[in-house]
Amino acid sequence: MAWILTAVFLAITWPCVRRLARLDYGRLGQGTRQGDVAELLFAVAMVAMLSPIGGPIPAAGWQALFLLTSGWFVVAWLRGARGCAHHAVSAVVMLYLLVAMPHVTAEHGPWLNMSTMDGSPGVLFTVVAIAAAVYFAGDAVKSGMFLLKSTDRPAGTVSRAACRAVMGIGMGYMLLAAL
């Protein structure tokens, strides 16, 4: 299952990169670009976490990156920036997963690798994981409904919703699988 999920998350990096390469953010706004960068970052982090061989960046590097990303989007959300609430929640949950994941063991060194998670995660992690999984499942359904209703929307909007739906399903699965 880890290889399938790795391939799925690797596949959704492509639409993120395509949107970023189009450079039409003058019309769409900085918030949209920041959201697209965040989506790409989340997808790459999911690949690193789920890949059975781990990722090229040590866990501490990912933790620092998501600490900064969490801070960025939480501050933007508190300032009232549109669309930042979801990215703030996603970044905080990713950071939480990165902290809760096993690392620095003899099995895989300092690299991320969720495929080696075993044992009891603890009550707090279980409660947070279930709450976050419910949030991401709801967001995936909302994004999926948007896709079903979108008939003549710009391609970037449809691509963003599709990536968000896949990320929501994947995050929910990952959170529940870690229990």
- Approximate strand percentage: under 5%
Mean pLDDT: 85
First-last Cα distance? 16 Å
The computed structural class is mainly alpha
Output the radius of gyration: 16 Å
Shape descriptor = globular
Low-pLDDT windows of residues: none
Helix and strand string, N-terminal first? HHHHHHHH
- The counted number of beta strands is 0
How much helix is in the residues?
A: over 70%
> What's the total helix number?
8
Largest sheet: none
Notes on the structure:
There is one protein chain. With about 180 residues, the protein is mostly helical. Helix content is about 75%, strand content about 0%. It has eight helices and no strands. It has helices at about 1-10, 15-20, 25-30, 30-50, 60-80, 85-100, 125-150, 155-175. Helix 1 runs antiparallel to helix 4, helix 4 (about 30-50) runs parallel beside helix 6 (about 85-100) and helix 4 (about 30-50) runs parallel beside helix 8. The longest helix is centred in the last third of the chain and has 27 residues, at about 125-150. The chain is globular, with a radius of gyration of 16 Å. The chain starts with a helix and ends with a helix. The model has no long low-confidence stretch (mean pLDDT about 85).
Offer a few descriptive terms.
179 residues; single chain
Quick structural overview:
It contains eight helices and no strands.
SSE order and pairing:
Blueprint: H1 2-11, H2 13-22, H3 25-28, H4 30-50, H5 59-78, H6 84-100, H7 123-149, H8 155-177
Helix pairs in contact: 1-4, 2-4, 4-6, 4-8, 5-6, 7-8
